[in-house]
Amino acid sequence: MEKLPKIGIPIIIIAIILIIVLAKSAVTVGSGERGVLYETFGGGVVTDEPPLGEGFHIIAPWNKVFVYNIRQQELSEKGMSVLSSNGLEIKLDASILYQAKAETVAKLHQTRGEEYLQSVVVPAVRSATRSVVGRYTPEQLYSTKRDAVQHEIFEETKKIVEPQFIQLNAILVRDVALPATIKQAIERKLKQEQESLEYEFRLVTAHKEAERQIIEAKGKADANKILSASLTDKILQDKGIEATIKLAESTNSKVVVIGSGDSGMPIILGNQ
C-alpha cells in the first residue's frame, strides 16, 4: 500500500474542516418562512435587521438560525368548557386563524419563543371565550347572539396577542353545545314564537283583506248612487226609444212597433 504524500494529509484535514464549516454555515429558509439570526458572540437575537428571507444563506458557523412559519395557520379548539351568564356549562368549538408577523418575528422569538402558540395564543383564546360567553344566556348563545359572541371573542383575543407580535386574522365559532334539556326547551320556545308570528301575520292579512273588500263595496255603492241620481225619466225614455229603433231596423226582427204606452214608450207586438 502506497503512502500518501506528506502534503496530502493536511489538504484532506482542511477539506474536512471546510465541509463541516459549510454544513454549519449553510441555511435554507423555505417558502412562507423567515429566519431569525442568533449571534453567539454578537449580542444574541438580531432584532434591528430584517429576518432572513426565503432561499439559501451563509452565516458564521458559530451562529444559529431559527426558522418560523409566517403563513396563516389554524388552531382548532374543541369542547372549550365555559359558563353562561346564569351559570350553565356550555361547550364551544372554534377555529382560530393566526400567524407570526414577518417584520417582528425576531422579537417574537426573543420574547415568546417557538412555543408561542401554546404560551400565548391558546391561553388568550380561552380567557377571552370565558369572559365573553359569561355575558350571555344559553338562549342568546344558541340563537340570536352567536355572531356578536364570535366578534367579541376575536376583539378581546386580539388585544392580548397582537402586542406580543402575533397577528390574529379571525376566530370562527363552529358550534355551541348546550345541555340537552336546555337545548330542547329553547327549541320549543323558538317554535312557539315562530307559530305566534305566523298567526299574527295571518290576522294582519285577514284584516287587510276585509278592509279591501269594505273599500271595494263602498266604491261600488257610491258608483251606483251617482248612476241612479243621473238616470232621470227623460234619459230613460230616450234610451228606450233608441233601443226600439235599433230593434225595428234589424233584419232578423219580427216585431211590430205601434203607438206608445202611458210612459210614451213604443208598444212592441209580436215576437215570433
Automatic annotation (TrEMBL):
Gene3D superfamilies: Band 7 domain
Record field: transmembrane: 7-27
Domain Band, chain residue ranges per copy: 24-190
CDD domains, alphabetized: SPFH_prohibitin
GO cellular component: membrane
Source taxon at top rank: Bacteria
Keywords: Membrane, Transmembrane, Transmembrane helix
InterPro entries documented for this protein: Band_7, Band_7/SPFH_dom_sf, Prohibitin
Compartment(s) where it occurs, according to its Swiss-Prot or TrEMBL record: Membrane
Membrane topology: Single-pass membrane protein
A Pfam family reported for this protein in Swiss-Prot or TrEMBL: Band_7
Protein name per the record: Membrane protein
Organism: Yeosuana aromativorans
